[in-house]
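Quick one: co-fold with S-adenosylmethionine.
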Amino acid sequence: MGKKWLDIVYNEKSSVRLKEHYKNWASKYDNDLIDWGYAYPTQVKKILESNIKIKRNSKILDAGCGTGLVAETLNDMKFNNIIGLDYSADMLKIAKSKKIYKKLIQESLSKKTTLRSNQFDVVLCTGVLTSGHVGAKAINELIRVTKNQGYLILSIAESIYEKLGFKNEIEKNNFQISKIKISKPFVALPNHESSATSKIHIYQRKLT
Ligand SMILES: C[S@@+](CC[C@H](N)C(=O)[O-])C[C@H]1O[C@@H](n2cnc3c(N)ncnc32)[C@H](O)[C@@H]1O
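Sure, here it is.
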């Protein structure tokens, strides 16, 4: 069953059913992703070490945090002010058990959240802006909650970057974000047969 989850979640059309899938996958998610060689934790670590300068107490939003696999790496790097948000109570339950988040919020990124504008030094979003999950419009919401001069770190698979409107949405927001770097493409789950190549996009918010 393990290998099938990826196909199931990326092909899901209904947000309600997607939540059900994550409920059923939650307890095995970490083991599966680790077995498949999940590359985002290492990729995000590299960016935080070399492309942007932020303090250990920077306020970080892990948007669509899931079980906290990427935040575990941030916690190992001594970042201590991480707020997680996800719409799945079951994924959040596992995230909570790791005791690495200052706060966890159950909300959807597919509409405007209750988060205050311009508050995060970093907004991180890995494995979420993708097919079956959260659409390109959410880029606006992620920008809205980022502070002036704060950073957005977004993973986007190459295959859907243009097709699902992410390129267009990012370009439309050029007046309020500047590109810092787009990583070289890498395989997100090298040990999984249906894994695709992704890039990590880093932008800085500029309040107009
Ligand atoms: C592939 S997991 C990635 C989790 C984590 N960011 C990581 O890198 O391990 C996708 C996550 O997106 C969440 N998600 C899907 N749709 C969502 C929505 N509309 N709002 C918030 N979270 C959502 C799921 O519950 C799941 O935890």
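If it helps, The mean pLDDT is 95.
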